[in-house]
Amino acid sequence: MILKLIAQRIALGIVLLLAVSVLIFAGTQILPGDVAQAILGQSATPESLANLREQLGLNDPAYVRYFHWLGGVLTGDLGTAMSSGQDIATSIKGRLWNTLFLAFWAAIVAVPLAIILGLIAVRYRNGWVDKLISGLALASTSFPEFFIGYVLVYFFAVKWQIFPGISTVYDGMPFGERMQAIALPATSLTLVVLAHMMRMTRAAILNVMQSAYVETAELKGLSAFNVIRKHAFPNAIAPIINVVMLNLAYLIVGVVVVEVIFVYPGMGQYLVDHVTKRDVPVVQAVGLIFAAVYISLNIIADIGAIVANPRLRHPK
Amino acid sequence: MLDIRRIPIPALIGLVLTALFVLAAIFAPWISPHDNAEIVGDVWEPMSAAHWLGTDNLGRDLLSRMIHGARITLFIAVLATALSFSLGAILGFSAAVFGGWFDTILSRLVDLLMSIPTLIMGLVVLSVLPTNLVTLILVMGILDSTRVYRLSRAVAVDINVMDYVEAAKLRGEGSAWIIFREILPNALSPLVSELGLRFIYAVLFLSTLSFLGLGVQPPDADWGGMVKENKDGIVFGIAAALIPAGAIAALAISVNLVADWILNRTTSLKGGRG
B238, B44 in Cβ contact below 8 A? Predict the structure, then answer.
């Protein structure tokens, strides 16, 4: 029963991912007219145009190019970058690891902090702590990522010189130095998702705390701690998992901007660089990877909610 | 009537700041002390009586550029929001009224578009499209219309089963009448409170694109573009980039405060149009 549900979710995710790959591919074909002309500009010679068309396979119809591309992606061949002629899969490997490293540490700090602060807000609801938290949440949804990033750089890197303002990382870098380098970008990312995650956690727990069984538990004389441990928390797990996963998915968007701010050699910076260079194969590949991570996180959230639901775990 | 003294203080602050930004945008050529592109001094001069906010990375007056930037930022964000609203609302209402395959195809397409982060899809599309204002507004408007579509479809599905809509259908009104004369007036209240949020999102999305170098192109600059122009100064302790970044935050917060207030007002009136 439960395995079937999970299998269904995963199958649905794969179908969605295939549809997204079509969308991303189509998104780079929407230009009316000639892509080669658009990339090279008006002053391009006929020879270079013909070369580029050949290189991009523009002489084939779109669906042939799509299946050719998809076949490559499925076998781990992401093609070559037009601007540098390098193999995309090789360039991505190190960068993907860097991005995951950054997002991992941001999540490690942000998730427990958000849940603890959310619990505190519920405990003192409508008090000043709660008001402060809602205020911060309002502010942080209004702050652009680069505002948070550059304020951190201005104070921590320039005025007080505690952390570097540019995150240089290289292969074989000692762990301590690497952590020092990612301190500011990871903090920016944490701040970007923290308030929203906190507010959603607060709403999820409040929702459970207002239900009849929690009131019953209180009335039969359980201590506040036991009410939360035995009755409120198990029922709040599913919504909290959802909150966490949704916000981790949001980290993906934040990571693009934060990597550009701190010149961090990850996927986001790679994507933005190649959008500017109009390097279509790289944009398709990186866009697909970002979409895949985003969709996977959403599926994990779904599965988490299924697993946390006893009605589905123990079918009648 | 609306009594100014009854507006809560946060909403009042939001209203005043939003009005200031809008006035600055409308009267930009008359109130800015210098021309947008005029070089008036040294690079990154500090704040002074002559240049209230100092000068930027090319020695242009930062205050003047901020005022002109307000105009470009608001102009694009307003047009993109208008596009996303008209497109999203009309398609959402139509999907609710027509139902059937029209609804199914459109809804699945919107699901698909929303399964990728907007910024990623925007970057993919902008990698092949020419960078100009029209593309920018179209891309921002169309991508954001998916959110409006979801909301307006959900609202319209509920309204579509009301007796007065049924009555209108029975007396033979066409679909256009049903959508614009029966559903639209009754769906206005939730849509208006969403308007503020979509506008903030448009401002933030535009600023992010320009910051990444894919939005408004130089010599014109919106606030996001100005952050990009002046970001190299931060390492030398020059805060010029923080001023446009702070302005974006201030605009977003003030609109948020106003939207919050309108939302509370309309919901407490129980179905009133506010």
Answer: yes
Contact B203, B248 (CB under 8 A): yes
Q: Is the pLDDT of residue B274 over 50?
A: no
Using an 8 Å CB-CB cutoff, list chain B residues near A151. 242, 245
d(Cα A120, Cα B248) in Å, to the nearest integer? Answer: 31
Return the residue in B21, B44, B118, B124 with the most chain A beta carbons within 10 A, the one to mutate for interface testing: B124
Please state the ipTM of this predicted complex.
0.85
Q: How many helices, marked H, and strands, marked E, lie in chain A?
A: 14, 0
Q: Please, which residues bridge with residue A80 across strands?
A: A87
Burial of residue A187 (CB within 10 Å: 0-12, 13-18, 19+) is buried
Mean pLDDT, chain B, rounded, equals 86
Q: What is the pLDDT of residues A13-45, one digit of tens each?
A: 999 999 999 998 888 876 655 666 666 766 777
**Residue found by looking up tokens 């009301």 in the block:** B162
Label residue A300 by pLDDT band (50, 70, 90). Answer: confident
In the structure, what pLDDT confidence band is assigned to residue B272 with cuts at 50, 70 and 90?
Answer: very low
| Cβ atoms of A18 and A292 closer than 8 Å | no
CA-CA distance, B188 to B34, in Å (whole number)? 42
CA distances from B137 to B3, B75, B125, B144, B177 (A): 37, 10, 13, 11, 29
Residues from chain A contacting residue B123 (CB–CB below 8 Å): 256, 271-272, 275, 283, 287
Q: Is the minimum CB–CB distance between A252 and chain B shorter than 8 Å?
A: yes
Sole residue written with tokens 């797990």: A237
pTM of the model: 0.88
Predicted confidence at residue B269, as pLDDT, reads 47
| A280/B contact by beta carbon, under 8 A | yes
At B200-226, the pLDDT tens digits run 999 999 999 999 988 888 878 889 999
CB contact under 8 A, A38 and B249: no
Are the C-beta atoms of B148 and B196 separated by less than 8 Å? no
pLDDT at A211: 85
Neighbour count for residue A11 (Cβ, 10 Å): 10
Are A291 and B116 within 8 A, CB to CB? Answer: yes
B195-200 mean pLDDT = 88
Residue of B nearest to A287 (CA): B120
Task: Tell me the two tokens of residue B38.
Answer: 């005029």
In 3-state terms, what secondary structure has residue A251?
A: helix
| Residues linked to residue B55 through DSSP beta bridges, in sequence order | B61
> Residue A50 has what pLDDT?
80
User: Which one of B117, B125, B245 has the shortest CB-CB distance to A144?
Assistant: B245
Q: Which chain A positions have a beta carbon within 8 Å of B201's beta carbon?
A: none
Distance, in Å, from the CA atom of A155 to the CA atom of A153, rounded to the nearest integer, reads 6
Which residue numbers of B have CB closer than 8 Å to A's CBs?
A: 112-113, 115-121, 123-130, 200, 204, 207-208, 211-214, 224, 227, 231, 234-237, 239, 241-242, 245-246, 248-249, 252-253, 256-257, 260
Scanning every residue of chain B, which has its alpha carbon at the shortest distance from the alpha carbon of A161?
Answer: B235
Asked if B124 and A287 come within 8 Å (Cβ–Cβ), the reply is yes
